[in-house]
Amino acid sequence: MDAWIPITIAAAFLQNLRSALQKHLRTSLGTTGASFARFGYGFPVAVLYVVALTALVGYRMPQPNLTFAVWGIIGGLAQIYATILLVHLFSLRNFAVGTAYSKTEPVQAALFGLIILGERLTAGAVAAIVVGVVGVMLISVARQRLSPGNLVRAMTSREALIGIASGAIFGISAVAYRSASLSLGGDQPIMQAAFTLACVTGFQTVYMLIWMAITDRAEIGRVARSWRSSSLVGLAGVMGSACWFTAMTLQQVAYVRALGQIELVFTFASSVFIFRERINRMEVTGCLLIVSGILLLLAWK
Questions:
Q1: What's the pLDDT tens digit per position in 92-138?
Q2: What is the structure's pLDDT at 28?
Q3: Gap between the Cα atoms of 186 and 57, Å rounded
Q4: Rounded to an integer, what distance in angstroms lies between the CA atom of residue 87 and that of residue 31?
Q5: Taking the mean position of all CA atoms in its chain, how far away is CA 146?
Q6: How many structural domains are present in the chain?
Q7: Which domain range does residue 250 map to?
């Protein structure tokens, strides 16, 4: 099995765990504070990860360059705003559907990968991604009668547009991170990914601290007082990001993000067993289509 496959599945699981923790955190913090917890509490862990790879494994420290800095900043800003949109979406729809709307990302990531990096997909991979997106669309109308009109209304609703925008910005972020990591060169993808993660998370922490200091200084205090739950968000977030960065250094973004749709399987489990939210047959069918798309992707890539 290619290394990027289990790494991506681990990333999807950790991302679902982080999102579930953020949804819980949203009850005590604002959208900005709940989003900041991912970066601020994750940054020290990211630095320790780089130090451990250098001191214990013997990896060489990469040498950053201007291309790395530009792509890192683009990816960092995109991830911040995509996260804010996703956290806000959790307050509008249930956890599973809110996450599902953002999972149109693989198609958008494939487009950005083609435009920015010139990465092309096989016909089979495109078909597999489409199957997965159809599953997402079914989930979006699962609480209504399935019809073309309801599907159009569901996919153009406020919640859908926020989710699709979140997926698009996450797609931009993913392509930017792959570009930043690859710009470091060398034959140590794990170290390239870890170094990129530490630099980007540090930038995001400083950026959001300045933002909160200007717009809502009291939120900084609330984030500090919620350090127990916020630190769990940061830990899950940085571990997930380390897996995403490594997988995207090893494989094209569209493939990684398409396989990452397996997060919705974990999401539905969280929705039912943690948040006690009810799901129906249409949502289960959509979830099965997403899994089918993932299996087709692995078979046809």
A1: 665 666 666 666 666 677 777 777 777 777 888 888 878 877 887 77
A2: 75
A3: 16
A4: 6
A5: 29
A6: 1
A7: 4-300
